[in-house]
């Protein structure tokens, strides 16, 4: 993993390897399994970015669980647009369920703040958040994920589900924007 990746007009360089990601997800899977054993949690994975993380995280948990997918959008290119749209919504009853949201990355925290508040109104038994990445330096909303893969600097990243204008989701490793 030493190659630069070019997507559209930008170059990205290696940042977190697939092996590091796997190791961390196995640890989080064990934590979640211990905590939610016997409670049949409902994972809610946020499309599009979290599809890869979600697939690996649920398989790292060895307890009974269910998973559904919803789609929220806010990003255009490198910038958050500020408005959150629900494109594919919740189609199951979450009342009294233990919810674990699976997100790829928390940046400003706007998306998760908005979604948390929506979920709370539906009276789940609990809500936890598992995010693969968080940029503490970019946070503008009071989001405290229960499970964090990696805290990273405020730099745009791609790979392992994350995209730059639609491209880059297929890489097994995570890359960050190359400074010139
Ligand atoms: P927030 O609402 O500002 O926290 O943005 C969260 C969403 O923006 C994530 O679910 C991602 O889809 C996207 N996003 C934020 N930072 C990045 C990044 O560095 N690379 C790719 N997507 C990102
Ligand atoms: Mg996302």
User: Which molecules other than protein and nucleic acid are bound?
Assistant: inosinic acid, magnesium ion
> How can the largest sheet be summarized?
6 strands, mixed
CATH C-level class: Alpha Beta
Overall helicity = 10-25%
Number of domains: 1
Low-pLDDT regions: none
Secondary-structure element pattern, one letter each: EEHEHEEEHEEEE
What Rg, in angstroms, do the CA atoms define? 16 Å
- What is the count of β-strands? 10
Largest sheet, spatial ordering of strands:
5-4-3-6-7-8
Measured between the Cα atoms of the first and last residue, the distance is 20 Å
Task: Give the mean pLDDT.
Answer: 93
What is the CATH third-level topology name? Rossmann fold
Report the CATH architecture.
3-Layer(aba) Sandwich
Binned strand content: 35-45%
Give the structural class: alpha/beta
- How many helical elements? 3
Structure summary:
The chain has helices at residues 18-36, 51-59, 110-120; strands at 5-7, 10-16, 42-47, 66-76, 79-88, 98-106, 126-134, 147-151, 157-158, 174-177. It is an alpha/beta fold.
Structure description:
- The chain has one domain: Rossmann fold (3-Layer(aba) Sandwich).
- Helices cover 22% and strands 37% of the residues.
- It is of the alpha/beta class and 180 residues long.
- 29% of the residues are buried.
- The structure holds inosinic acid and magnesium ion.
């Amino acid at each position: 993993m030493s190659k630069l990746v070019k997507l559209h007009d930008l170059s990205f360089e290696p940042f977190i390897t697939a092996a590091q990601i796997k190791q961390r997800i196995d640890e989080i899977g064990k934590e979640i399994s211990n905590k939610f054993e016997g409670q049949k949690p409902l994972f809610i994975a946020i499309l599009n970015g979290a599809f890869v993380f979600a697939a690996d995280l649920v398989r790292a948990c060895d307890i009974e669980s269910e998973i559904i997918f919803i789609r929220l959008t806010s990003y255009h290119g490198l910038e958050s647009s500020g408005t959150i749209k629900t494109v594919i919504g919740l189609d199951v009853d979450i009342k009294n369920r233990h919810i674990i949201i699976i997100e790829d990355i928390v940046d400003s925290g706007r998306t998760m703040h908005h979604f948390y508040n929506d979920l709370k109104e539906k009276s789940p038994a609990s809500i936890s958040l598992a995010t693969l990445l968080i940029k503490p330096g970019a946070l503008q909303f009071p989001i405290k994920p229960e499970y964090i893969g990696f805290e990273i600097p405020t730099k745009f990243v791609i790979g392992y589900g994350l995209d730059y204008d639609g491209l880059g989701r297929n890489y097994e490793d995570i890359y960050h924007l190359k400074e010139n």
